[in-house]
Amino acid sequence: MPEQLDIQRILALPDKEFLPEVFRALLGRDPDPDGLHFYTNRLQQGVSRTRVLLEFRTSAEGKKRVGVLSVPELDALVPRYQLLKQLPLGKWRWLFLPRLRKSTKPGEQTRYRWQQEESSFREALAIQRRVIWALIMRETVTRYGRENLGILWFFAEPLLFIVGVTLLWSYFEPRSIPSGTIAAFAVVSYPTVLLWRNPTGRVTKAIEANRALLHHRPIRPQDFFYSRILLEFASATGAFLVIFILFVAVGISHFPVSLFDMVMGWLMVVWFAFGFVLTMGGLSEVSEVVEKISHIILYFMLPISGAFFPAYIVPEPLRSYLLLFPLVDCVEFFRYGYYGNSFPSYYHLGYTIACNLILTLFGLAMMTYAIRKVETT
Question: Mind spelling out the 3-state secondary structure of the chain?
């Protein structure tokens, strides 16, 4: 008959005695120095004792003792733990893993401390927010300098791109844009390119370039992705707002027909860009080939991004094929918010939302895989 382990006694042990007892109880041996050091760091980083116990229980050594050691409270959480390990949600997934707690009365069943887990999640989120903000400020100073003019370049760089393209397009009078000037079309089209093109270049090999910062315990590899993506999104959005308001003020552009649809369209482009950038960033960390061809991929995306011409001028069946690319639907929806029914817009919101969701999950999975590969090298 399997030996019954008193998990409550182990949970009640002080920190210095907890890990040695876990080695002896769950693995049947004294702790080795490397293993003890590794799990001591895990606990110091905020990993719960429940997760540590589950990691021991589901390890190769721990599985060998399943038949001779019974731990009902712990084994009840193993299926959920193994499921959560597969989800590409980072630290957030552990919000759904209950924590075992010490019983206060003899015979009392172990219950789950959802409130404590929620509190721990809030604290971890607050730490990550501060880390990301610090990385954003570091990236801003590194890229633009400490002078006031350097900070202005935060908006001026993408703004000059938009103005340059607008001036270039102003020499043409395409019949495909019946209402408004080419400059007005450019200012509500080209800024969408900045959302996915610039961040992709910034996150390529971001972990490798900042590996030295990982010696600071609160910083995690994914923070490099998030901070750079947020900085680029803020830069592109700020530049678009400045030039759009200016164009409306001088009469080149008009107020959006539907401000709500225009904002939602912009957010849809941001959503697509987030998933795409995470995917490219993760792939660049695991494959040097992707790093080399990333610029080629971005160049090929430019003519089919929907930013340089409206979809309705594309004849069928090419238009249907073009709209299979969710970025085109996002841009069309964004322009619909500005133009309304001035000229036809083609987009499929349900399909676009589904594609963006799949792309985001895939991007998170690629980022997680890249982080694990970097951490093992």
Answer: CCEECCHHHHHCCCHHHHHHHHHHHHHCCCCCHHHHHHHHHHHHCCCCHHHHHHHHHCCHHHHHCCCCEECHHHHCCHHHHHHHHHCCCHHHHHHHCCCCCCCCCCCCCCCCCHHHHHHHHHHHHHHHHHHHHHHHHHHHHHHHCCCHHHHHHHHHHHHHHHHHHHHHHCCCCCCCCCCCCHHHHHHCCCHHHHHHHHHHHHHCCHHHHCHHHHHCCCCCHHHHHHHHHHHHHHHHHHHHHHHHHHHHHHCCCCCCCCHHHHHHHHHHHHHHHHHHHHHHHHHHHHCHHHHHHHHHHHHHHHHHCCCCCCHHHCCCCHHHHHCCCHHHHHHHHHHHHHHCCCCCCCCCHHHHHHHHHHHHHHHHHHHHHHHHHHHCC
Given a cut of 70, whether residue 232 has pLDDT beyond it is yes
CA 265 to chain centre: 19
**pTM of this prediction?**
0.65
Q: Mean pLDDT over residues 215-235, rounded? A: 82
Mean pLDDT of the 165-192 span? 70
pLDDT band at 158 (very low <50, low <70, confident <90, very high): low
pLDDT, tens digit, for every residue of 185-217? 888 888 888 888 888 888 887 777 777 777 766
The predicted-structure confidence for 44-88, as pLDDT tens digits, reads as follows 877 888 888 999 988 888 888 888 788 888 888 888 888 888 776
Compute CA distances 275 → 102, 268, 363, 367, whole Å: 41, 11, 5, 10
